[in-house]
Design a protein that fits this description.
Structural class: alpha/beta
Number of domains: 2
CATH architecture of the largest domain: Up-down Bundle
Radius of gyration: 25 Å
CATH superfamily of the largest domain: Amino acid/polyamine transporter I
Strand order of the largest sheet: 1-4-3-2-5-6
Number of helices: 21
Distance between the termini: 29 Å
Helix content: 55-70%
Largest sheet: 6 strands, parallel
Strand content: 5-15%
CATH topology of the largest domain: Amino acid/polyamine transporter I
Length: 582
């Protein structure tokens, strides 16, 4: 039996990619400035500007990474060029980053919403994390779009806030940093949180829309990725720098508003009503970042398990395509961290060691990989940025004992699970029989040799829709394309092994006997968007008819996830017929 694997459709344009990136990276200004002001007051401006400069260089490096990794260039991928163990370490550092991102963003989000009491803010944050985890059990599509809808109003609020603060520049009262070079370096390191979220840009290249004149065989997403990164980088770097300058114009009481600095700036510059607006916009954006962090953890745990680096239970899916063991893990870990440390400054220290470590490994892996054709100045710049980030990471490890202990625990647990998983695989391999079925893996479906009419049926079992399509293909003498989509709610492009999918294997085995004498193409896909996959396959093959089974999902599930039949019907070309059975 020959089965072609088909990848996830590349349908994320630069505007949506920028909005999704902003939902994580763009939140950093909400707490970076407050941390600086709380730590050293009006002497923090040089340190904050230095943070912005480093952030700009890191963003530039990630444009080059996206250029050379069009199928996903996160730390887990790039570190894998050197060793699988290093890839696992990079992935675990990123996991540590996601854990604290969820805890920190949610806690600070409720501070921005007006919950000044730390205990109350913590209780609401824990409740929100559990609620977001529960909603994600259904694998919803619309929750991930919250950050997209909030991106535009957030940018508008930042622009208005800057405009309102300009008249106050006459009141600027910066102070010269005290202490020596080492002391100021440590202070700078304490504020290095504006790097948050940039890994999303590299990890998501596998779903970005291809550049003009590129193909699935030779993909390029440089233009799409560059536009998305530059737009967000300008906001993060220039926006944070300008707001940092304006923070120097605030009264001395600003030092007490570490948790809601931008809201306080809105109060002073444009009045209490605008301050409330700033609080709600940034509060909701920060809470939406919790969803981004949780889905990022789920995807990372699933992919690492898919690659044999973590135990198989992380691959278990519920009926909505959600890796439920990974989701429970991703929901509980931020809550555990919040119960250990419920202060923004404490979480910031835990946060920095994960994100800086992951980015440093990514840049170092790319800079020292001879297989990546970087230009001379690109490689030198990347090596220089890597050295700076490595120095920052070492400083955090030496000066923040709790941060070092936190990341050590994450690495120890993760590497132990990896070793146990590898040992189990070696035992299983020693007793396994060689596979007797040919599998053809390809980035996209190969065109069948039959040039007549085409019928595409998407089936998750032996359904009335599939039986109808078989009979219709017999009557019409048409080519039948049978597509099995294993829905997995992780937004990455990854190959799938239909042989390890018992449901797909059962379907294709029965199809082999039932469809004798028919011209049948069997297609298998792992996708977080079945509707888009169906549409993409229909367009690729130029089918005449698409056959689907009727949806029996509950109203709430259809509301959160979207109705597959309705989405296919709304986006299918007019030249194609849609038949819904049941």
């Amino acid at each position: 039996m020959e089965i072609s694997n088909v990848g996830r459709p590349r349908n994320v344009g630069w505007v949506r990619a920028a909005a999704l990136l902003y939902g994580d990276w763009g939140t950093s200004k909400a707490y970076v400035i407050g941390l600086g002001m709380a730590a050293i007051g009006f002497a923090a401006l040089p340190h904050l500007l230095a943070v912005c400069a480093v952030t700009g260089f890191v963003g530039l490096n990630y444009i080059w990474i996206c250029k050379h990794f069009p199928n996903g260039g996160g730390v887990y991928t790039s570190a894998g060029l050197h060793s699988r163990r290093l890839a696992t370490i990079g992935g675990l550092l990123l996991l540590a980053d996601f854990i604290v991102t969820a805890a920190l963003s949610c806690l600070d989000g409720f501070h921005y919403l007006g919950f000044e009491d730390p205990v109350t803010a913590k209780k609401w944050a824990i409740t929100a994390i559990f609620a977001i985890g529960a909603v994600n059990f259904l694998g919803p599509k619309h929750t991930g779009g919250i950050a997209v809808w909030l991106a535009v109003p957030t940018v508008a609020v930042v622009i208005i806030l800057i405009g309102g603060g300009v008249p106050h520049l006459s009141q600027i009262h910066t102070q010269a940093p005290g202490g020596g070079i080492l002391q100021n370096w440590t202070r700078f390191v304490d504020m290095i949180l504006a790097l948050s979220g940039v890994e999303v840009a590299a990890s998501s290249t596998g779903v970005l829309r291809l550049d003009a004149n590129s193909t699935l065989d030779r993909p390029s997403v440089l233009i799409t990725a560059r536009r998305a990164i530059i737009v967000v980088m300008v906001d993060v770097v220039i926006g944070t720098a300008m707001l940092s300058v304006l923070a120097m114009c605030l009264p001395d009481a600003a030092k007490e508003h570490q948790n809601d600095m931008l809201r306080y700036m809105g109060d002073i510059f444009l009045g209490p009503k605008f301050g409330i607006l700033v609080g709600w916009v940034f509060g909701l954006l920060l809470i939406s970042a919790v969803n981004t962090a949780i889905t990022g953890m789920v995807a990372l745990l699933y992919v690492m398990a898919h690659d044999g680096e973590l135990p198989d239970p992380f691959l278990q899916l519920n009926r909505f395509g959600v890796p439920w063991v990974a989701l429970i893990t991703a929901t509980i870990l931020p809550v555990v961290v919040l119960n250990i440390d419920d202060k923004v400054e404490g979480l910031a220290a835990l946060y920095a060691i994960g994100v800086v470590g992951a980015i440093a490994i990514n840049l170092g892996s790319c800079a020292f990989a001879k297989s990546i054709p970087l230009k001379g100045f690109e490689r030198i710049t990347m090596k220089g940025t890597f050295l700076v980030l490595a120095a920052i990471w070492i400083t955090i490890a030496l000066s923040k004992v709790w941060a070092l202990l936190f990341v050590a625990v994450v690495l120890a647990v993760g590497l132990t699970l990896r070793e146990l998983t590898r040992r189990h695989q070696r035992i299983a391999t020693a007793t396994a029989m060689p596979a007797s079925v040919l599998q053809k893996a390809a980035p996209g479906p190969a065109a069948p040799d039959f040039l007549g009419q085409f019928i595409l049926v998407a089936a998750r079992g032996w359904t009335p829709a599939l039986q109808f399509a078989l009979e219709e293909s017999r009557v019409r003498g048409a080519q039948l394309l049978v597509l099995y989509v294993r829905e997995v709610t992780v937004t990455i492009d990854m190959g799938g092994n239909w042989e390890s999918d018992s449901d797909a294997k059962s379907l294709f085995t029965r199809l082999e006997s039932e469809a004798r004498g028919l011209k049948v193409n069997k297609l298998y896909s792992i996708s977080d968007s079945p509707a888009e996959t169906i549409i993409d396959i229909a367009a690729t093959f130029g089918v005449d008819t698409v056959v689907l089974g009727g949806s029996r999902r509950a109203t709430l599930v259809n509301l959160l996830k979207g109705n597959i039949v309705a989405r296919v019907a709304a986006n299918l070309p007019e030249t194609m017929h849609l038949i819904v059975i049941g």
